[in-house]
Specification:
There is one protein chain. This protein has one helix at 3-12, and strands at residues 17-23, 33-44, 48-53, 59-63, 67-72, 78-83, 89-91. By secondary structure, the chain is mainly β. The chain has a seven-stranded mixed beta sheet. Strand 2 (33-44) and strand 3 (48-53) form a beta hairpin. The longest helix is centred in the N-terminal third of the chain and has 10 residues, at 3-12. The protein is globular and about 30 Å long. The termini are far apart.
């Protein structure tokens, strides 16, 4: 999927709940898969995606190029963002 298509699909989910899956993007994860099932898309540009973890209130920014998209079949087919790059920028 090209960048414009990824951005368009993410923007369709703006202000809605999505699932975020992190695959070894942090040394503490050590190659394991970690999932945040309650995140809300705040914004998406050609450079990055901003979202909020509903349970903690943390805001994350992730480069768009570090995201793969799929459906979360365990949660009704909603959007799942798979982070495949470096650790995301997190702020409170």
């Amino acid at each position: 999927m090209d960048t414009a298509s990824v951005m368009h699909e993410i923007l369709r989910w703006k202000n809605k709940l999505v699932t975020v899956e992190k695959r070894g993007v942090h040394p503490a994860i050590d190659g394991k898969i970690y999932e945040e099932p309650g995140c809300r898309i705040e914004e998406c540009t050609v450079e990055k995606v901003d979202f909020t973890d509903i349970s903690s209130g943390w805001r994350w920014s992730v480069p768009l190029c570090d995201i793969e998209l799929t459906a979360d079949e365990d949660r009704g087919g909603r959007l799942k963002l798979i982070l495949v790059g470096k650790e995301p920028d997190i702020s409170l």
